[in-house]
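I wish you would study the pair of lines that follows with an eye to the fold:

===
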Amino acid sequence: MKDSDKIALITGITGQDGSYLCELLLAKGYKVHGVVRRTSNMLRSRIEHLRRNEEIYDQQLFLHYGDLSDSTTLRRIVGDVRPMELYHLAGQSHVGLSFEIPESTCEEAGMATLRLLEVARSQPQPVKFYHASSSEIFGNASEIPQTENTPLRPTSPYGCAKAFATQLARVYRESHGLYVCNGILYNHESPRRGENFVTRKIARAAARIARNLDNELVLGNLESQRDWGRAQDYVQAMWLMLQHETADDYVVATGETHSVREFVDAAFAVVDLPWEKYVKHDPSFDRPTEPARLVGCADKIRETLSWKPAGSFRQLVHEMVEAELAAIDPRF
């Protein structure tokens, strides 16, 4: 592929994954186009450093107003940009919140994916399509660890929507010959994680308590376990999927699980405080149904695409707490 052909379109470019993927693609010489909502004007902090760079913005990085519910606009954007690679990352991604807003969650994660698949299928030039699936499609998993062939048994509206979209992607690949990859990503975190996610909430609280700005942290189930990785590593996996000769589905995971309690312990260790003194449990924060032990087997992507995660669980937690401390006191 010539550099002039390296054009990518990202939905969800202002999110955690979208911003890291954008940086990765720019570093690889791509022209990167992103779809943003007009209402996200105030929510672009993750890519603000790129927008302020005159050598990048409107030179290598371009933003287009659009909405996942508007197929006409999506079709126009894709037609104008003519991307070689389309990364579909956008949508409501908070599992707990999906119980409160199930309809919009299913609309954004499910139907929006269908619209984009149809748009990609109608293009005169082939488009490589990455769909951001999720470990939540396995839900009450029938086996541990989970692989690409584990049956789908979601336990949340978000998981159901992602399962629907994941199956659709497979149908379009197998029935229409579209190059579509499902990235079945397990939990991945970073300093850019949204503040409504438990990992960011813990990291932020540890930093604020250490600086005497807060005095407690209220959480739900401390025994919930997750397979947590680094978002920076996982966007590399997304890119690798679309460079392979054939499209396929891949589990992206560390293969390790850690509890919320372990995350709390590691976070407060960074600031040398006893977490038991500050953390309180509130049952109202617990999920209505908790998925089984979700831990991924990433053997396929390791063997096929030579991907593996960098860094450890404790390094991830340290990175997130340090970023919160730096935000409070830039001299840190």
